[in-house]
Amino acid sequence: SRAGMVLSVLVILLLSMLYEAIKMGKAVLLRRALLALPRSLSRESLAEPEEGGTGPAQGRWFRYHISQTLFHVVQVVLGYMVMLAVMSYNAWIFLGAIAGSTLGYFV
């Protein structure tokens, strides 16, 4: 039906926008993770403290790394969902994916 097609195109458009937003979020997290790394890459600065806990910079870097991993998993899942929708060979769904990707990158 016409309403079902409009809803499908709208959902694909939103999924494509979310994909682009997650891609930008991963770039921001990468920048923050790189800033959280110690300036010196000597053996002493990378070794864990003797007290048994991790230092604040190491813990922050690890949290950024875990966040990047989760963002990557969500990005891959969304990418495959959009790809499968486009492979339905429906021109309107294809245009919805292109428009969503464009709008997501623009925003």
Automatic annotation (TrEMBL):
It is a multi-pass membrane protein. GO terms for cellular component: late endosome membrane. Keywords: Copper, Copper transport, Ion transport, Membrane, Transmembrane, Transmembrane helix, Transport. The chain crosses the membrane at residues 6-22, 70-95. It comes from the Eukaryota. It is found in: Late endosome membrane; Membrane. GO terms for molecular function: copper ion transmembrane transporter activity. InterPro entries: Cop_transporter. Its main location: membrane. PANTHER family: PROTEIN SLC31A2, SOLUTE CARRIER FAMILY 31 COPPER TRANSPORTERS. Belongs to the copper transporter (Ctr) (TC 1.A.56) family. SLC31A subfamily. This is Copper transport protein. It comes from Scopus umbretta (Hammerkop). The lineage of its organism: Eukaryota, Metazoa, Chordata, Craniata, Vertebrata.
